[in-house]
Amino acid sequence: MAEIQKDVVFYDQSRGGATFSGGEPLMQPDFLLGLLKACRDQEIHSAVDTTCYAKPEVLRQVAEVTNLFLCDIKHMNSELHEQYTGIRNDRVLENIRMLAEAGKRIFVRVPIVPGFNSDRANMEQTAQFIQSLRTIRRVDILPYNRGGLEKAGRLMGRIDLMETQAPDDGTMDGIAGVFRSHGFEVTIGG
Fold first, then answer.
1. Does any domain span residue 168?
2. Which CATH number characterizes residue 34's domain?
3. What is residue 166's three-state secondary structure?
4. In terms of DSSP bridges, do strands 45-50 and 17-20 run parallel, antiparallel, or are they unpaired?
5. pLDDT tens sequence across 152-177
């Protein structure tokens, strides 16, 4: 909290707050909950940037003390999601639905990775899923960033997915159009 408190003047001027991301902040729920409660007690706006892959009871506790969720949806096809991320997306989607039904403020973030999830069919399915939740109005589409290739290669060896190129502006504009056609406010780059 001492680090967070250093920026309170900035938060007040910008109407911002503390964003908890990672890695995955829900992997350390006790630590996260402690910080979120302290932020709430000091009236500091809080956001959790998450995959929403956690036990529902953990997410419910976190939701009680969080102002905003930045929730990733990587792919609607559970088998492809598992192939590229190591987990199925069922829990992710169920947890996003649970947060929406609880009336939590959510921005959905879709990382756009050519060759994985950038096809129109997946974007349409993603937009339809989000639209079914009825409470989410904003979608951030995030172009794949090759910036971490060297570090990832040193840490984990070759990763084929990382050989893809960042999507071009035309691809990003087309994807934005899909979400806009479903009534969403869309930010490219979030």
1. yes
2. 3.20.20.70
3. coil
4. parallel
5. 555 555 555 556 788 999 999 999 99
Tell me which amino acid residue 35 is.
L
- Residue-wise pLDDT tens digits, 39-72: 999 999 999 999 999 999 999 999 999 999 999 9
Q: Whose CA is closest to 75, among 106, 121, 132, 107?
A: 121
d(CA 139, CA 126): 10
With a cut of 60, say whether residue 4 has pLDDT above it: yes
Query: From CA 120, how far away is CA 103, in angstroms rounded?
Result: 29
Q: Nearest 5°: phi and psi at 164?
A: -70, 160
Number of domains in the chain: 1
The answer to whether 76 and 82 are in contact (CB under 8 A) is no
Confirm if 111 and 120 have CB atoms less than 8 A apart.
Answer: no
Considering the domain boundaries, does residue 83 fall inside one? yes
**Structure token digits, residue 171:** 């691809």
Torsion over CA: 161, 145, 108, 184 (sign):
negative
Q: Give the length of the chain.
A: 190
pLDDT above 80: residue 14: yes
Residues whose CB is less than 8 angstroms from the CB of residue 120 and which lie 6 or more positions away in sequence, other chains included: 174, 178
Residue 180: φ, ψ to 5°: -65, -35
